[in-house]
Specification:
The structure holds two protein chains of two kinds. By secondary structure, chain A is of the alpha+beta class. Chain A contains 19 helices and 28 strands. The longest helix of chain B is centred in the last third of the chain and has 14 residues, at 105-118. The chains are: A alpha+beta, B alpha+beta. Bound molecules: FE2/S2 (inorganic) cluster (2 copies).
Chain lengths: 760, 155
């Protein structure tokens, strides 16, 4: 008998037909009765004191229904952590970056709203500003917040083993510095929020989010209304990629406008606002010192990373930690020191990004290649020798329950023909490898676990109620797939109520790659709870034990004698007539160390399990133009177990495009005095269909002991490794190790030229 | 000052009072409340707003509404078959796993439909070129190209 009906199969996603017909509604598509258009006035200065704001003219403009400034709010400061509470949703004293929210209006149409903005008179006193990490750290640099001396927002310090001793015992030690400017999310959907209050003071709000509960709590705090009055509604979401997780000023502003105007309000960000006023990814400078023994094993490593955080904390402590954590998960090492700094500048706010830390990850991998070259060991072997293994502890004390890192390296190596290619390709033709690892969840305080409910209907269908949110990656389908599998019903029998804070229980959100592992486990447990209740009824009817039953094809039957069966609907009806509860409940709390804290105590179990991935790419570089042509790519990840292989492939491919093709070749922001010069697609180059190479997906399964059906997460380790493979391959092609990313034609040409000069 | 235009919208004769300043996208989304056509940028760079006008895929965010006069416009709402079932190209996007967040998908489908309506068996290059102006941040385009190919081969 086959093991599963749905799990492990290429199931067609339940949400995609309505997306293919255009019926799926995104936040910006919502049309509510009497809805107003909201617009935000933004700071033209990178750093300035707000002397006064006069909104009287704007308020008098016909068609304007509400104008808000900081005066309408309590002045409370918000932060993801207690120690990072530094952002007011509308600032009272100062603006700290070009584009920061200053005031907002709601009006009957867009033209009126824009005219009203132009009538708001804000008097500023410009202040000296800092735009780079070096300027921000300079003695006597202006302070952006009084509470962060020297503009140092976060310092994460990790020290394990004896790094100095490790270096002295190493056969070879290198130190190199790697840099990369800011990059951006460029989600398909620009940010949009719609909000309305009913006459009982209940807020309904829709916005792209990576966790409705993560949005609801701060909304409750700032609006001073209880959580049960904050209804973050489910809506189709056009991508998040690590962003859209925390509360955004737009959410709060939209709610305040709706409350003041007593009408629904919708704010749709322009593409420029989506870039400037949501989040960007950090620019960083990473100095890495690594010592290895003769065989290439890392003996000691010391990393200092300085990240440009922009004007506020955002998810700063996480952002500073994650590149390091991914590295320490991927590679074995005993002696390791890390000093990660997040420095504030007068630039837009930076948050977590899917492919976070290219100057970090590519630095680590490039240096590994350099060390290998000096030792006469090829990059693939260097990775095999240092690869994390099942049963290890990471330096910061996370147990690794399952790890297919070695298999991802071996299989990408075999399929790409690494041995036949590395070092044997013609000039300007190269091959490179990257390996990395990601978490499946973080310690998130009380929001760390997920709960799910299942309600059975008398026709045998079910309604699943869960806080899991789908940002586009396929989480809705994952929920349906698991619930239907467990109960032996068809996906069509499953109705989903998710990502709505009015009815769904707590969930960490689609953040930190945890939804399958944590949310999926909760749904599975809820379905098993229901199944046990149904089995109890059927067991009584058939006179067998509950463990002798199977649920499949909408029936419950005796496993050894399938003739003895009853429809699930019948079992439900029996339960109803006996007044027996057959609703199910499941909750999953990951095994993480609750005492672990990003800054104060970065030790202990970080995440219950980790995924591991390897990417290899083969490239040709045109020495005349510096253009890179990717010939073919091989992407492998240990996903634990592939719940839906086609969905996983899609995640590999999308992650490869963002992390590798875009992240390593073309994506970066340019600046002038704190103003981003390329906030739109016109200057910020995301990959196009014609840019993409053939990608060979290699799914590796290790069957995690605690993941649902052994699953972990579906593709982030590929996204993270892709940039490293690109940088390795390009370095290999041109014969120069590159340290400043992304690898634009300019950088590549300069490197080729420099090499030519050296050789003369 | 409003002006009247007459055109065909998803096979139906349509007469509208429009402001000559509007774009076609504004008419579709804001006035007709047909929100299947998306706005990803508003300046002709992302393709989310793609519709088919007289057989050609165009960015409706740049298309002056007055130009629609006398023409035939098809939007994503007009693609599904009469009985409500999906057009083969829509079905292919679903079957091949080409849809993730879905924001780019209406535009992708309109661009690829325009190609397939013109050409029975486009080459892979032609397929990629047809969606060159349609940005997708989720999929890496692989399964989107597969989906279009599957229809092209199946005709
Ligand atoms: S919205 Fe028209 S091209 Fe982007
Ligand atoms: S599916 Fe999300 S942008 Fe294409």
């Amino acid at each position: 008998m086959k093991k599963f009906d749905l799990i492990g199969k290429d199931m067609k996603r339940v949400d995609t037909a309505s997306k293919a017909t255009g019926e799926a509604l995104f936040s910006g598509d919502l049309i509510l009765p009497r809805m107003l258009v909201g617009k935000v006035l933004r700071s033209p200065y990178p750093h300035a004191r707000i002397i006064s704001i006069d909104t009287s003219k704007a308020e008098k403009l016909p068609g304007v229904k509400a104008v808000i400034t900081a005066k309408d709010m309590s002045g409370d400061k918000w932060g993801v952590f207690k120690y990072t509470q530094d952002q007011q949703f509308l600032p009272t004293e100062k603006v700290r970056y070009v584009g920061e929210e200053v005031a907002a209006v709601a009006a009957v149409d867009e033209d009126t709203a824009l005219e009203a903005l132009s009538l708001i008179d804000v008097q500023y006193e410009p202040l000296p500003a800092v735009f780079t990490v070096d300027d921000a750290l300079a003695p006597n640099a202006p302070l952006i917040h009084d509470v962060y001396p020297s503009n140092i927002n976060i310092h994460v310090k990790i020290d394990v083993g004896d790094v100095e001793k490790g270096f002295s015992e190493s056969f070879l030690v290198r130190e190199d510095t790697f840099t990369a400017p800011e990059d951006s999310y460029f989600q398909g959907e620009p940010y949009a929020v719609a909000a309305q209050f009913d006459n009982a003071g209940n807020l309904e709000i829709w916005m792209p989010n990576a966790g409705p509960h993560l949005k609801a709590k701060p909304l409750s705090n700032v609006l001073k209304i209880p959580l049960n009055k904050v209804r973050v509604r489910k809506i189709t979401i056009g991508g998040a990629f690590g962003g859209r997780s925390e509360i955004a000023p737009a959410d709060v502003i939209c709610a305040f406008l709706a409350r003041k105007a007593k009408r629904p309000v919708k704010i749709i960000y322009t593409r420029e606002e989506n870039t400037v006023a949501t989040r960007q990814a950090h620019a960083m400078v990473t100095t890495i010192k690594t010592g290895v023994d003769k065989e290439g094993h890392v003996v000691a490593r010391d990393i200092t990373c300085r990240m440009d955080g922009g004007a506020y904390s955002s998810t700063g402590p996480i952002a500073v930690s994650v590149p390091f954590l991914c590295m320490e998960q991927a590679y074995r090492m005993e002696n390791i020191r890390y000093n990660g700094y997040r420095i504030l500048t007068n630039k837009p706010i930076r948050g977590m990004f899917r492919t976070h830390g290219r100057a970090f990850a590519c630095g680590v991998d490039t240096q590994l290649d350099m060390l290998g070259a000096e030792l006469g060991i090829d990059p693939l072997t260097m990775r095999l020798r240092n690869a994390r293994q099942t049963g290890d502890y990471t330096p910061t004390k996370s147990f690794v329950a399952s790890c297919g890192m070695t298999e991802t390296i071996i299989r990408t190596g075999e399929q790409s023909g690494w041995k036949e290619k590395f070092g044997k390709l013609p000039p300007f033709h190269g091959i490179g490898i990257g390996t990395n690892s990601v978490q499946t969840g973080f310690p998130m305080g009380i929001r760390g676990g997920s709960q799910a409910f299942i309600k059975l209907n008398e026709d045998g269908g079910i309604t699943v109620i869960t806080g899991i949110v789908d940002n586009g990656q396929g989480n809705d389908n994952m929920i349906v797939q698991i619930a239907a599998e467990e109960l032996g019903i068809s996906p069509d029998d499953v109705q989903l109520i998710s990502a709505d804070t009015e009815v769904t229980p707590s969930d960490p959100g689609s953040y930190s790659m945890c939804e399958t592992f944590i949310g999926g486990n909760a749904v599975r447990l809820a379905a098993q709870d229901v199944k046990m209740k149904l089995f109890k009824i059927a067991a009584g009817e058939f006179g067998v034990g509950e463990d002798e039953l199977t649920a499949r094809d909408r029936k419950i039957f005796v496993t050894s004698n399938p003739e003895k069966s009853m429809n699930i609907a019948k079992a439900v009806r029996i339960a109803l007539s006996r007044n027996e509860s057959i609703s199910g409940e499941g909750s999953y709390w990951p095994n993480v160390d609750a005492k672990r804290e990003w800054v104060k105590n970065p030790y202990g179990q970080l995440s219950e399990t980790f995924s591991f991935g390897t990417v290899i790419v083969e490239v040709k570089v045109d020495p005349e133009t510096g253009q890179v042509e990717v010939i073919e790519a091989w992407a492998a990840q240990d996903v634990g177990y592939a719940l839906n292989p086609k969905v996983i492939e899609g995640q590999f491919e999308g992650g490869f495009a963002m992390g590798g093709q875009g992240g390593m070749l073309s994506e970066f922001h340019q600046w002038h005095e704190g103003r981003v010069l390329n906030p739109t697609h016109l200057g910020y180059m995301v990959p196009l269909a014609i840019d993409m190479p053939k990608i060979n997906n290699i799914i590796v399964e290790t069957i995690d002991p605690n993941g649902p059906y052994g699953a972990k997460e579906a593709g982030m380790s590929v996204a993270m490794s892709a940039a490293q493979a690109y940088s390795g391959a390009i370095s290999n092609a041109i014969g120069v190790y590159l340290k400043d990313f992304p690898l634009t034609p300019d950088i590549i040409l300069k490197a080729i030229e420099g090499k030519g000069k050296r050789e003369q | 000052m409003k002006k009247e235009i007459t055109f065909t919208l998803n096979k139906e004769k349509t007469i509208m009072e429009v402001d000559p300043q509007w774009t076609l996208l504004h008419l579709l989304r804001e006035v007709l409340e047909m929100t299947g056509t998306k706005e990803g940028c508003g300046y002709g760079e992302c393709g989310a707003c793609t519709v088919i006008i007289d057989g050609e895929a165009v960015n409706s965010c740049l298309y002056p509404v007055m130009e629609v006069e006398g023409r035939s416009v098809m939007t994503i709402e007009g693609v599904a078959l009469k009985d409500g079932s999906l057009d083969p190209i829509q079905q292919a996007f679903v079957d091949e796993g080409a849809v993730q967040c879905g924001f780019c998908i209406p535009g992708m489908i309109m661009s690829s439909k325009a190609l397939l309506d013109k050409k029975d068996k486009p080459t892979e290059e032609e397929i990629k070129e047809s969606i060159e102006g349609n940005l997708c941040r989720c999929t890496g385009y692989v399964k989107i190209v597969d989906a279009i190919k599957s229809v092209a081969g199946g005709r």
